[in-house]
Design brief:
- By secondary structure, this protein is of the alpha+beta class.
- The chain contains 13 helices and 5 strands.
- Helix 1 packs parallel to helix 8 and helix 9 runs antiparallel to helix 10.
- The protein is globular.
Amino acid sequence: MKDMSNPSYKKILSFMDEITFSNENFREKVLQTFENLFGYCQSIFWLCDDNNDLFEPITLNIDKYVVDDYLNNFYQLDLLVPKYNMQKASKQTVIKNLDLLPPELYEKSVYYNDFMLKYGFYYDVGVFLYDRNSIKGVVNFVRSKKEKPFSTSDIMCLEVISRFLSQKTSEFPHHFVSVSKENLINPLKNKILASSQDLRQPDLTLKEAEILQLLLKGHTNITIASELFISVNTVKRHLQNLYRKFDVSNRTSLCYKIVKP
């Protein structure tokens, strides 16, 4: 902290001033303020459930189809996901992807070549937000290889802001609602049971409800197939049925529609 420049302090204070009294569209406001003050132009603000899985992303300048591709095919390969990186995340609140894997290995990885490179990303930094000992949210910032890497000053600012945002999780827990397994399963069962009486609820099959439960917990098509002992193509077919029944076009919109009150 002693090496932090005066302009960095001013940015942090300005950020806190902007966010302190922000209650509506909180996560959108956080990402927008990061862009305005720090120039972080592409970002995602995730919620984190009790199993350390990420869900319900809010994005800034990242298209939904990119998030869909990530959730469908690359989620399990991302070393910054808390579920796969708890040992590191429990010790640091801000982690860069190149802290976890050196560039020469990173650039040979499937995750980089099939996902990050495809969408023009190279640098990725994760900011972990805690409520006591539980991670309640993660903010990711990405940059292309042509842009400057995240500097030591960036990381120091993010570490200070992460503590501030973590405090907000305690003060305003409704911004960081964690979906437990029970809370997911019971509403879905109710939808099925009530569907014949309430025309607003889609008539879900038991298999569709099972897939929806896993989807909301951040599972990919591959892990859903493994969990339910069905093929990936069968998972995709059920997902298409769910999109049709809920009148959405992708899994991100489906998750929004289910999770939001």
